[in-house]
């Protein structure tokens, strides 16, 4: 109970979100000969992603399965005039998406240990940034925050496919970008409609607000 009380007070979700991003900055400033730098980048990225996974396990361990509301909720004011906040939290579905993301990233790093030989440092940086964006997206409780992170995922994915993909990587990366961008435009329209109907981008408030059928 003592540990559970402290976990609820600690911003564990933000720690899980931003730890990979902080780790990517450390990798950015690694200075050694190319071979040592590549090896250090892989080891550091693996450590950071593994610690992030262990932190996400705490979400599962201390998640109250008898509670239907969002848990580990954190809120910070972002754009006060528009009532847009940095608000994150997880429910019984999104908590598993967070865990799956943090579980797969170290596996992907291990899988690329020998296959990625070119621009290893940059590859690890991009992958950790992608992890931050994905975890943030799955735990976002504000539509604007969700949309920004959803769009942000496009950038590292585009880079990973375009730089380290196969023989048709350039074509594949642009195709991926265009298809996802099309969906993003429709998503933006939906968010604007919801905001016009409810006057808020808070997902929790939106679910409790009756929306006109007209």
Low-confidence stretches are none
Q: Main beta sheet, described? A: 2 strands, antiparallel
Shape: globular
Number of DSSP E strands = 2
Question: In the residues, how many domains can be counted?
Answer: 1
Terminal CA distance: 49 Å
Query: Strand-residue fraction?
Result: 5-15%
What is the residue-mean pLDDT, rounded to a whole number?
86
Order of helices and strands: HHHEEHHHHH
Transmembrane segments: 12-31, 43-63, 93-111, 123-140, 146-164, 176-195
GO molecular function, one term: NADH dehydrogenase activity
Protein name: NADH:quinone oxidoreductase/Mrp antiporter membrane subunit domain-containing protein
Domain NADH:ubiquinone oxidoreductase chain 4 N-terminal: 47-135
Walkthrough of the structure:
The chain is mostly helical and 214 residues long. It has one domain (2-207). It has helices spanning 2-9, 12-28, 34-61, 94-111, 120-139, 143-164, 169-198, 203-207, and strands at 71-79, 84-90. Strands 1-2 form a two-stranded antiparallel ribbon. It comes from marine metagenome. This is NADH:quinone oxidoreductase/Mrp antiporter membrane subunit domain-containing protein. The chain crosses the membrane at residues 12-31, 43-63, 93-111, 123-140, 146-164, 176-195.
């Amino acid at each position: 109970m003592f540990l559970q009380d402290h976990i609820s007070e600690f911003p564990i979700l933000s720690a899980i979100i931003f730890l990979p991003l902080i780790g990517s900055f450390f990798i950015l400033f690694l200075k050694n000969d190319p071979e040592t730098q590549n090896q250090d980048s892989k080891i550091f990225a693996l450590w950071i992603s593994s610690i992030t996974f262990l932190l996400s396990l705490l979400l599962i361990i201390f998640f109250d399965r008898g509670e239907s509301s969002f848990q580990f909720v954190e809120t910070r004011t972002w754009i006060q005039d528009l009532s847009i906040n940095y608000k994150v939290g997880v429910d019984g579905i999104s908590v598993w998406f967070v865990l799956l993301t943090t579980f797969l990233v170290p596996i992907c790093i291990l899988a690329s240990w020998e296959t990625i030989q070119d621009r290893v440092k940059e590859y690890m940086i991009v992958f950790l940034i992608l992890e931050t964006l994905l975890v943030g997206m799955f735990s976002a409780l504000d539509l604007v925050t969700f949309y920004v992170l959803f769009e942000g995922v496009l950038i590292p994915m585009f880079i990973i496919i375009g730089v380290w993909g196969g023989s048709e990587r350039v074509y594949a990366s642009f195709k991926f970008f265009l298809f996802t961008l099309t969906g993003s435009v429709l998503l933006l329209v939906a968010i604007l409609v919801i905001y016009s109907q409810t006057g808020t981008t808070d997902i929790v408030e939106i679910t409790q607000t009756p929306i006109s059928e007209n």
